[in-house]
Amino acid sequence: MSRFRILWLLGLLALSGACAPRVAAPPAVEPPPPPRAEAARDCYDALARMGAKFEPRAPFRSPQGCALDEPVMLERATIALSRPALMTCPLAHALAAFEREVVQPAAQRHFNRPVQQIVHFGAYVCRPRTGSTDRISEHGFGRALDIGGFELGGNIRISVRDHWRERGPRGNFLREVAQGACRHFNVVLTPKTDAAHQAHFHLDIGRFKRCDA
């Protein structure tokens, strides 16, 4: 092939490359946004925003195997407790939501007035489960609360022991509250459960699921 023909071919190739349509580079892919922290990730802050009154306590373990993580001494979630109760912050958070979404609406529906105090029988206590000698109760981890009754404005007192089976507003209120509790707690035990729960509701956020409403 002559030198002239070689130069002519090289020029033709260069010209065709210059006229070729340019392909746009693909747009840069935006990295996914970092996962948004959940509102209740910091439980103490979430509890404070709900209007609770409490004191954070130091976590601890007992020689018997009981333990508390994120403990709080709770005076009120959204309703005053009959006395301060030691429990985990997640239980206090669940209690606050339960009070706001179940207890107070039921009180307004049946009595047209709010609950002013929750009477309880205790939260944290290091002991075995009822009827067991080798399994620690959810109370031993601060994940359970026993509620014995409610006090409303107008000096209205409602007792689980006295009014659970009553055919009237007090009994209707208690049964509605127990049913609503199953939406906020993993285990709800009532007088329907056994003789050990004739006087209170056992509410816990443990690993198991049970609703005896």
As a whole number of angstroms, the C-alpha radius of gyration is 31 Å
Order of helices and strands: HHEEEEEHEEEHHEEE
Helix content: 25-40%
Q: Sheet bearing the most strands, described?
A: 9 strands, mixed
Mean pLDDT reading: 85
Report how far apart the termini are.
98 Å
Q: How many β-strands, per DSSP? A: 11
If helices are DSSP runs of H or I spanning 4 or more residues, what is the number of helices?
5
How much β-strand is present in the residues?
15-25%
Helix- and strand-based class?
alpha+beta
Which term fits the overall shape? globular
Sequence stretches where pLDDT stays below 50 over 5 or more residues: 12-40
Descriptive report:
The protein is of the alpha+beta class and 213 residues long. It has helices at residues 3-19, 43-49, 89-111, 160-163, 169-181; strands spanning 53-56, 60-61, 67-68, 71-76, 80-88, 115-122, 144-152, 156-159, 187-189, 201-204, 210-211. The strands form two sheets. Strands 1, 4, 5, 6, 7, 8, 9, 10 and 11 form a nine-stranded mixed beta sheet that branches. It has a two-stranded antiparallel ribbon with strand order 2-3. Strand 5 (80-88), helix 3 and strand 6 form a beta-alpha-beta unit. Helix 2 packs parallel to helix 3 and helix 3 packs antiparallel against helix 5 (169-181). The longest helix has 23 residues, at 89-111. The protein starts with a helix and ends with a strand. 31% of the residues are buried. Mean pLDDT is 85; it is low at 12-40.
